[in-house]
Amino acid sequence: MEDAAQFLNSIDKKALLIIILLYISITLFSFLTLRFKPRSLYAGVLTIIVGGLFFIYPDYFLSKILPYMIAPSLLVGVLIGLFTLPEKVDDLWDIKFLTNKGTKIIRNIKRGVLIFGAAGSGKTESPIYVLLRHFAKKDFTGIVYDYKDGELTEICIPLFGDKLKIISMHKAYEDRRVNVFSSKYITDEKDINESVNVLISNLGTGKETSDFFQENASALLTAIVLKFHLDHREYCTLPHVIAFLLAVDFSENTGGKDYLGKEAIDSFSKLKKFLLSNKRVAIQAAPFVMGLASEKQTAAVLSTLANSLRKIAFPEAFWSLSGDTIDLNVNHPNNDTVLSIINEPKNDLFLTPIIATIIHTATKQMMVRDMKHSFLLLDEAPTIKLQNMAKIPATMRSFGVAVIYCAQDLVQGTVRYGRDKFREITANLSTQFFGKANDPDTARFYESYFELIEKDQKSISKKGGGIFETTNGTTTSKREVSKVRAYEFTKLKAGQFAFLSDGKNDMVKFNRLMIEREEIDNSLEVSKENLISNYENILRDIQSFVDHKIK
């Protein structure tokens, strides 16, 4: 230190300011070199400063300038840079997007993303498109649920190209068929029970409270699917199962006489034989079989199931579900597929149960380790009901699957799942985008995500009245209020969203993006004649099966 003091004393006082500036400059440019681009520019300036000092003071450089000026300045700059270094951006799981407040980052999308916004809030053109663009760029596989009859699919076609496969139940295509009861997806009773429960709950028969007829209907449907899976796999498709239940006469002449002397008919004899011919099937069918003694009860169970299944017994669905050209193992390395499943709002009552079953089947295949990185994007997600939806985001992140859950408002989800269960779903999604809210409860829900801040509040006391009213005094107090108030969310414009991630929150407006769209190729749409022919063939095949196989 004495050497440093002697060195400074030996320098002209006017040069002291220059030395201080050099200290600051070396510190600053070492910091900039570590933290910001273009690093080569900052490193070049730093090199010029150090080289200039060596050139001007060669006698003092090694003994004085290097150890007492350059080294400490570099050390301070590097330490400041390291302590202020932001978290490194993961090129695969972190997503950058541009806003009116600069570049923002969605950290670790495996933890799930929640996107809320009323109609016209810009969900599709802003956060959803940013996510889809990243998934395409980084070669993700995945599933897109497109509720609006192809709106999202038209965006996905240019992004994903040939790896995009499209499934639609309201339009049948030659190469777009999937068998949800294929042996690739179901292996035992557990798998079948889950698929049947998803189908039944989306058909509108599932309730939170146990219902005798509904439980028996589910047991019967599970048993029939299991029987076809175990013993007759050529008929193990949803259309064949529906045809078996809705278009077959199970009655059989017992060979005896009833109390009126007429031939006795057992209305469900063939069905009973079918179910009891395999012990595993008989166990699943036990609730139904035990009720066969009561013909009225049996008829009620079958009627409950038939009334549900008739909604999805139409030619387009029979075509799309009786083939197996699309593999639902979307994230398998040998498959590498992005699947877009299209709904149609005007017919969603009939399409949603099938779509929910397909998505359930596909998500189960995704829950396998060491597969490709993938995503599940559900637009208008509350329009379908998936089993254990609250657990899906937490479970799927372990398998490298990012879940993006989109909804219009809190009401939409509450109607489908109930308030508490829907809150559980939203709580498992770590990043939130909140757009325009039309519903007051939804706006208050958004507000609850923001921290409280202290705000000055003035209260004015007055006395007298009318023209004699005078101000007596003004009191200023502090009050804790939410950083963003509920009413502000009702005034947001398209593209404006509250962005919450990693404990940080901000109100941002997405930069307008140029979005390319491409219409769906309908050249392979199946003709009406072929649809009807396939429909009738399935009915004939099942009738022939019953006539010749059940004896």
Structure description:
The protein is an alpha/beta fold. The chain is 47% helix and 17% strand. It has three domains: 2-83; 95-178 and 325-461 and 471-509, Rossmann fold (3-Layer(aba) Sandwich), CATH 3.40.50.300; 189-315 and 528-549, no CATH class. It contains 20 helices and 15 strands. It has a nine-stranded mixed sheet with strand order 5-8-4-9-10-3-11-14-15, sandwiched between helices. A two-stranded antiparallel sheet has the order 1-2. Helix 3 packs antiparallel against helix 4 and helix 8 packs across helix 12. The longest helix is centred in the N-terminal third of the chain and has 26 residues, at 58-83. The protein is elongated and about 120 Å long. The protein starts with a helix and ends with a helix. The relative contact order is 0.14. Belongs to the VirD4/TraG family. The chain crosses the membrane at residues 15-34, 41-60.
List the SSEs and their pairings.
Layout: H1 2-9, H2 14-35, H3 39-56, H4 58-83, E1 95-99, E2 102-106, E3 113-116, H5 124-137, E4 141-146, H6 151-160, E5 164-168, H7 189-202, H8 212-231, H9 238-246, E6 252-257, E7 263-266, H10 269-276, H11 279-289, H12 295-309, H13 315-322, E8 338-342, H14 348-366, E9 374-378, H15 392-397, E10 401-407, H16 410-417, H17 419-427, E11 431-434, H18 440-447, E12 452-463, E13 470-482, H19 486-489, E14 496-501, E15 504-509, H20 528-549
Parallel strand pairs: 3-10, 3-11, 4-8, 4-9, 5-8, 9-10
Antiparallel strand pairs: 1-2, 6-7, 11-14, 12-13, 14-15
Subcellular location: Cell membrane
Transmembrane segments: 15-34, 41-60
GO cellular component, one term: plasma membrane
